[in-house]
Amino acid sequence: MKYPECVRCGKLSPKWSFIGNTLASLFKVFVGAFTGSKGLLADGVHSAADAVSSLFIFSALKVAEKPGDERHPFGYGKVEYISTLFAGIFLFIGATVIFIDALDAFKHGDHSLPDNAAIFATILSLIFSYLMYDSNKCAGTELGSPALVADAYESKADSISSAAVLIGLIGTKMGFVYADTIAAVVVALLIYRMSIEMFFQGIHGLIDMSVDKDTIDEIVNISLTVQGVEGVRSIKTRRMGQKNWVDLKIDISKKKSMLDTHMISEKVKESILTKIAEIGGISVSTFPVGKWGVEF
């Protein structure tokens, strides 16, 4: 984490996302209905799905903050992956509603020309959704929060869909009467893709996905700098929301006393927890070796 303000921003982002997506949804649906823009109406449905997802993510982050207890010694961080999974489901449902409505428009030959106000409203929506994406992406990346990153990508999907709607609206003004409806289909397909990606991100997190290779290398390097550590025999990691957990096995000379061995393992723990903020817990086991790392 680069800045202390990231924590405060991370707490506020999901709340503002819910409020922002709710207002954006009402605005898009109202203007879309008033101007006759199916693309903007579809974008409004997308924002409504985003609002529901943001509310769920906000609730999940509250639960994830709870410390570990007797029944949940690793804490509640994985709730963030559940929220990511449900956010993907909500987006998928929203995309389906948009897609069905667009197909219905093609079927009944609905090619009414949207009012010019729809273009102005879409530009405002595009700017707003991109600003939300930028804010949530920053907070989610700095805090290592999968839920906030998921919320950010929902806003990114919203900005992409707004751009597609804008292109469609411009197309209708140039004489392509179905451009707005085609834009709605494009929006649906883009949301489908992003919802599936988010769904699988949630699944991977729930089945103990490992941390990235750079973090693993950093853990190994820190361990090897501790005096008395002869080598790192194995390392297993798991992502638990904003915090990661590590199971580490290190080599220590068989000539070391039990007390020295214990002190070395505790020093390894302390060094890793001090230098890597994203580590929430670590267990260190030792393996006795002889001279030049020969197993005992």
Domain module count: 2
Structural class: mainly alpha
Strand content: 5-15%
CATH topology of the largest domain: Alpha-lytic protease prodomain-like
Low-confidence stretches: none
Number of strands: 3
Judging by the overall fold, what is the CATH architecture of the largest domain? Up-down Bundle
What does this entry look like structurally?
The chain contains eight helices and three strands; from the N terminus they run αααααααββαβ. With about 300 residues, the chain is mainly alpha-helical. It has two domains: about 200 residues, Up-down Bundle (Alpha-lytic protease prodomain-like); about 80 residues, Alpha-Beta Plaits (2-Layer Sandwich), CATH 3.30.70.1350. Strands 1-2-3 form a three-stranded mixed β-sheet, covered by helices on one side. The longest helix has about 30 residues. The chain is elongated, with a radius of gyration of 25 Å.
Short description:
With 296 residues, this protein is mostly helical. The longest helix is centred in the first third of the chain and has 31 residues, at 5-35. The mean pLDDT is 77.
Structure keywords:
single chain, 296 residues, mainly alpha, Alpha-lytic protease prodomain-like, Alpha-Beta Plaits, 2 domains, 3-stranded mixed sheet, elongated
